[in-house]
Amino acid sequence: MNKIHDNRAWFLVVPVVALVAFNAVIPLMTVVNYSVQETFGNNVFFFEGVKWFEQVVHSDRFHAALGRQLIFTFTILAIEIPLGVAIALAMPRKGPWVSVCLVLMALPLLIPWNVVGAIWNIFALPDIGLLGRMLNGLGFNYNFTRQPGDAWFTLILMDVWHWTSLVVLLAYAGLIAIPDAYYQAARIDGASRWAVFRYIQLPKMRRVLTIAVLLRFMDSFMIYTEPSVLTGGGPGNSTTLLSIDLVKIALGQFDLGPAAAMSIIYFLIVLLLSWIFYTVMMRNEDRS
Q1: Beta partners for 191?
Q2: I want to staple 210 with a disulfide (CB 3.0 to 4.6 A). Which of 1, 126, 269, 281 is the partner?
Q3: pLDDT exceeds 80 at position 3
């Protein structure tokens, strides 16, 4: 008996293909198109080849923004991952306080990003902000609008406050998924708290921590709204991260060719570093 193929089923995937093309392929192709052309208005374009890519790659401005971006990303990863795991370990596993803790942890994640930037902008103002007045009252010469070090301190503190909750929730999900039999065996063996964490909890959380590291890396590397509202990239260019610099080139200077080339290079850096993170962490998983 011959099997009958009904090709009309392919029409069911047409909406998905159209949606993906509209959301991803067409914008990406538009950026690629701009990255190899120059325009002087009136919708007239001139082919420039890889000129803009060479200009961006050899640009001191791009190198400086990339350096600031790497410092910011690795600093917040070094703080948020261990801090999130520590908070998750301290949270109760059973009882009425579980719901209270989970809701409190989720609250920062529910606040819109531009609101977070505005909140911390007001909170850290040296004259009227609670944080600014408190630090100056303690004898620190704190002013994040004028001093680069204070701007970096405020920016990192804001990101830690906003996004550590995500690490906490993921780590907590990994912890409560560990069967009680592991803890019972550890108690029978007289294992210390550190031994339980080192040989039971940490290996069992490795997959969720991999997700947490990847999510926080990608998000922090592409962050724009919060630092833009908080510092605007200043004072000077001290907190001008890659995303802020890209917007300045694209919308401030209206250099569409260099901005498009920088967007593609930016995307490839995120893709490459994410792949490296994933490969290294999953290789350790295979070894364990």
Answers
A1: none
A2: 281
A3: no
Residue range 27-50: average pLDDT? 84
Q: Output the DSSP codes for 22-89.
A: IIIIHHHHHHHHHHTEEE-STT-EEE-TTHHHHHHHT-HHHHHHHHHHHHHHHHHHHHHHHHHHHHHH
- 38 φ, ψ (degrees, to nearest 5): -125, 145
Q: What angle do CA 24, 30, 31 make, to 5 degrees?
A: 90
Q: How far apart are CA 38 and CA 209, in angstroms?
A: 44
Give, rounded to a whole angstrom, the gap between the first and last alpha carbons of the chain: 51
pLDDT of 287 above 70 = no
- Joined tokens for residue 208: 């969720």
Mean pLDDT score, 15-33? 85
Would you say residue 41 lies in a domain? no
When pLDDT is cut at 50, 70 and 90, the band that residue 2 belongs to is: low
CA dist 87 to 167, 260, 266, Å?
9, 41, 33
Contact 137, 130 (CB under 8 A): no
Is 111 within a domain?
Answer: yes
Total tally of structural domains belonging to the chain: 1
For the cut 70, the answer to whether the pLDDT of residue 35 exceeds it is yes
Q: What CATH number does the domain containing 241 carry? A: 1.10.3720.10
User: Residue 4: what pLDDT?
Assistant: 67
Q: Is the pLDDT of residue 272 over 90?
A: yes
Question: Would you say the pTM of this structure is higher than 0.85?
Answer: yes
112: its two tokens: 């819109």
Q: Which domain holds residue 99?
A: 59-245+272-286
